[in-house]
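protien #1 (seq + structre)
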Amino acid sequence: MPRPFTPKIVTANLLRDGDVVYLTEDDRWSTDLTEAEVMTNEAHAQMRLVESDKPAVVVGTYLADVTVSDAGPVPTHFREEFRATGPTNYTHGKAHGQRPGPDAKV
C-alpha cells in the first residue's frame, strides 16, 4: 500500500556559492524557507521539480517533506532543519550572528 503524499517543497543549492535555496511560487530561488512554495499534490510537485532543474543556476534539486505552520513551511527531517539554519560553526554563513561563538564573552 503506497504511503500518502505529504506536503513538499523544492530545494537545491546555488551553483555559485552553495547556499541552500527554495523554489517560490513565482519561480525564484530564495534563501528564505518561508517563501518556499508548498505543494500538496504529488503530480504538481513532480512537475515543479522537473521545471526547476536549471543546471546553470542550481544543483541537487529535490523534494523535501514539510509541515505547514502559521509561520510557513517547517522541515520534517533533521537534515532539512540543518540546511535551513545553516552551518554549525559560529563564524560563517547563516549561523553568523545568531549565537555566540566559543570565544564570545557572555
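ok now protien #2
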Amino acid sequence: MEVLARSKYIRRTARKARLAADMVRGMRVSEALAQLEYSPKHAAQDVAKAVKSAAANAEHNHNLDRADLWLKTVVVDEGPTMKRIRPVSRGMAHQYFKRTCHITAIVEDRPEAAPARPARRRQAARSARPAAETEAAVEGES
C-alpha cells in the first residue's frame, strides 16, 4: 500500500532539494532518515520532514509497521517564486527571486523481500548459440 505526504511552499530551491531527495530514493525509511540526518545538505532537513510525515501517516492512518516501510519515491517540484527588488546605484533596481518548492514523499509497505526470479531458459539458449557458431567457424577454417 502506498502512503504519501506533501510539504508545500518550502523556502528552498527545488534544484537544491532534489540533491537531497536523490540520495535516499528507493531506500528503507529508517536508512533514509539516518542518511538525511548526517547529510551536509541543508535541504536534507526538509526532505527528512516529508519522509517522517509519510511514515507517520502510514503508521497512524493505515496501521502499517514502520520497519516494513520503503521510500518508493521522493518528488521535488517547483513552487511559486516570490520576486523582490534590490535598489542599486543610479536610481535603478535589480530583481531577485525567492524560490519555493513542494516535496512529495511516497512510502510503500514491503513486508518481506520478494524472491529473485530464476533466469529464463531462452536467455541461456541465446548465449549458447554464439558459442556453437564459433566452433563451427573454427572447424571450417582448419
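The chain has one domain: 2-114.
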